């Protein structure tokens, strides 16, 4: 039962992330939340979540460097 509820919320968050890619909204937050919930049960979700975290970290560092130059 707990696993099913987890999957329902994960799919809901991923669907909201896809929706917010089309309309303005916080799509990255919902993608990360959906992957986080799936990462409890699936190793492939852990890999995607790790990839997502590394990409966000590097993009934030890039933006920080650009803003520091001003």
TrEMBL record:
Q: Which domain of life is it from?
A: Bacteria
Q: Where are the transmembrane segments?
A: 5-22, 28-44
Determine if Membrane is one of this entry's keywords.
yes
Keyword line: Membrane, Transmembrane, Transmembrane helix
InterPro entries (UniProt xref): Uncharacterised_PGPGW_TM
Q: What is this protein called in UniProt?
A: PGPGW domain-containing protein
